[in-house]
Amino acid sequence: MEFNKCSRCGNFFISNNDVCPKCEPKDTLEFETFKNYIEENGVTNNLETLSSETGISIKNLNRFLDYTGYKNLPNQNINL
Hints:
The structure is a single chain. The protein is mostly helical. It has one domain (24-80). 44% of the residues lie in helices and 10% in strands. It has helices at 24-41, 47-54, 58-66; strands at residues 2-5, 12-15. Strands 1-2 form a two-stranded antiparallel sheet. The longest helix is centred in the middle third of the chain and has 18 residues, at 24-41. It starts with a strand and ends in a 14-residue tail after the last helix. The model has no long low-confidence stretch (mean pLDDT 83).
């Protein structure tokens, strides 16, 4: 296990994850929302539109785009 800084709230914690245990449920929910949106609508919009339609911050959308699970989703043509 490593000493990490949470990519959502900035708190330090010990784990192999990139978010702290307190933020993990919300992060999981937002990633599922992101994934469902892409599966239903594709990803041809820019990040601002995607953020306003899903309610997920641009910062977190950028993190989700780096996740391994995203690589398997259809229509990965996001305009940054």
